[in-house]
Request: fold
Amino acid sequence: MSKTVLDRPGDNTRRSAAPAEDSSRADAPPRPGLRPVGPQETVTPTMFGTPEPRGGRTILVAEDDHSCRSALHHYFERLGYRVAEAADGPSSLRAVFSQSADLVILDLGLPGVDGSEVLIKIRRHSAIPVIVCSGQDSEDQRIRLLNMGADDFVVKPFSFAELEARVRAVLRRGVVAPASSQIAHGDLVVDRGTRTVTLRDEVIPMTRKEFDLLAFMAASPEQVFSREDLLERVWGSTAQWQGRSTVTEHVRRVRLKIEDDSDHPRWITTVRGIGYRFSAPEAD
Ligand code: CA
Reply:
């Protein structure tokens, strides 16, 4: 089966301050509302057999290349997704925080705020799944982006079918903890929509970062996170420029608020030599 291919390799690695159009596709001038059709584009969604229900999930396509963005929009729309678009870094961030997208397809080469910076900023506030697209394929970059909180990664040129398979896989994983939902463990309820924490029906006041930390850990119970993991995933930072003690201190403060005895924590336990784990204590 032939593939639907986007962009040429390297197209997207430039950090150009130019407006939101890529000049590299002079052969496919952007025409709003029309699907750009190139010689490589030979596969339509109907050729993949009976479409699976995609349940009206909303995908945000953050991509400055108009042709690419528009092609992705139409492709995913025909498969039953709702699609929103953003053409630069700042509008991508606004869209993530103001719309209820279920997943972001994030191009790394975005004007304004580049893609990796957008990813860091998203992860400060949101657990929304993010699949990064890049023109570069290096192991270092993949590792760095995955550590920064990307859920998956595709390298240009990529096939639409492959990207869609990855979108489905990431959304399946996300079903465990949808970004907009409440996380409830026994008496403890973390509501990411209203950013409130209640314990035994009592609201527990939290600072922004205390909330982010607890919400992040509570979304992945029993998983052990190192302080470095938490710095990256919750703070969008690294140990190089923010001390790991930031994490230690915030864990201490969250424990003071939610633990009955913060010297013998039951919700957030220390895994010696590694980091921390959130678990729901068994009922007494
Ligand atoms: Ca780009």
About this structure: The radius of gyration is 21 Å. Residues 12, 64-65, 107, 109-110 surround calcium ion (CB under 6 Å).
